[in-house]
Write a structure and sequence with these properties.
The protein is α/β, with parallel strands linked by helices. The chain contains 13 helices and ten strands. It is 38% helix and 20% strand. Helix 8 crosses helix 11.
Length: 310
């Protein structure tokens, strides 16, 4: 029986609370205070924050696997994420935001002599991941429901030489810099991170939204008003710039590689465009690779960072 590990959330977790309350008037965590000019969530409301995220993904879990199987963009991007990750050897890997366990199953099956642990804030997603690992009879996995702040308690005594996050699992943490600190503490001295984030500056998307008359969608990321992809259900989240990432992780890690995704190639929620583009889609994919070596590499839907411990 799946049990969520409950761990007290560390005090002084920070977040843009005023923005959060603006978009979530019914948000229950109304306890906040000012500390040195920053809005700080008290432990009770940080827990409420993660409950909102968990509830969102519990609902998302109901048909998540089916929607993924029908989306060729997600499959192609995930394959590239995996290829980059496999450039780095590991003995103990941790996936943060594992969803239904696609990548846990992939890496645990591919490397049966290595251990793959995974955590997700959604008990529903962890339930799917457990079902999928058990279906493959995998004995080298360990799963837990919890947030990034819970990692050390969920996997006591473990140190990881590979931590990977696909499709923006860290965009929903309460505070990215504190999350980086938690990750640092559970890493080995030679650990590698492979992290992907939803970008704050998705430049080619702006004219597409403007052309459809959606001025609200066109600039919501830049104005830090983005709360997920759905018009009907919002999720506590925040898109990040390259500067945000570097600032959050610079004390413990150095960036060794970057790569942009869906700069010109369609984003996953525009996968229907692949049929219209035909062979042009492959050219757009190659164009993304080329522009990833320029200063415009992080202007697409996702950015990938490979980091090494300092």
């Amino acid at each position: 029986m799946l049990q969520k590990v409950t761990v007290p959330v560390k005090k002084q977790l920070t977040y843009q609370v005023q923005e959060l309350f603006k978009h979530y008037p019914d948000y229950p965590g109304q306890l906040k205070k000012q500390t040195r000019g920053r809005n700080v969530i008290k432990p009770e409301s940080a827990a409420d924050y993660y409950r909102h995220v968990a509830d969102y993904y519990d609902d998302d879990a109901l048909d998540f696997e089916q929607r993924y199987e029908e989306n060729p963009v997600l499959k192609r991007i995930r394959a590239e994420f995996r290829e980059i990750t496999e450039e780095h050897d590991f003995r103990e890997a941790l996936e943060i935001g594992c969803g239904p366990g696609f990548d846990v199953v992939y890496f645990a099956s591919r490397f049966p002599d290595r251990r793959v642990c995974a955590i997700d804030v959604s008990p529903g997603m962890i339930g799917l991941a457990r079902k999928n690992t058990e279906a493959q009879n995998l004995k080298n996995t360990q799963l837990a429901a919890g947030s990034v702040e819970d990692i050390a308690a969920c996997f006591p005594g473990r140190k990881f030489d590979l931590v990977y996050v696909y499709f923006g699992g860290l965009n929903t943490v309460v505070d990215l810099e504190l999350a980086a600190g938690h990750i640092n503490r559970i890493c080995t001295a030679d650990a590698t991170l492979v992290l992907t984030f939803v970008n704050r500056y998705y430049i080619t998307e702006i004219p597409l939204w403007l052309a459809s008359g959606r001025f609200d969608k066109a600039f919501e990321r830049i104005c830090n008003r983005w709360r997920g992809y759905s018009d009907h259900r919002k999720i506590p989240s925040r898109p990040y710039s390259a500067h945000d990432i570097k600032r959050a992780f610079s004390s413990g890690f150095r960036i060794t590689k970057t790569r942009g995704f869906s700069i010109f190639y369609p984003a996953w929620y525009r996968s229907h465009l692949l049929g219209r583009f035909g062979k042009v889609s492959d050219w757009l994919w190659k164009a993304d690779k080329l522009i990833s070596s320029t200063p415009f590499w992080n202007t697409g839907e996702y950015s990938l960072y490979v980091m090494k411990k300092r």
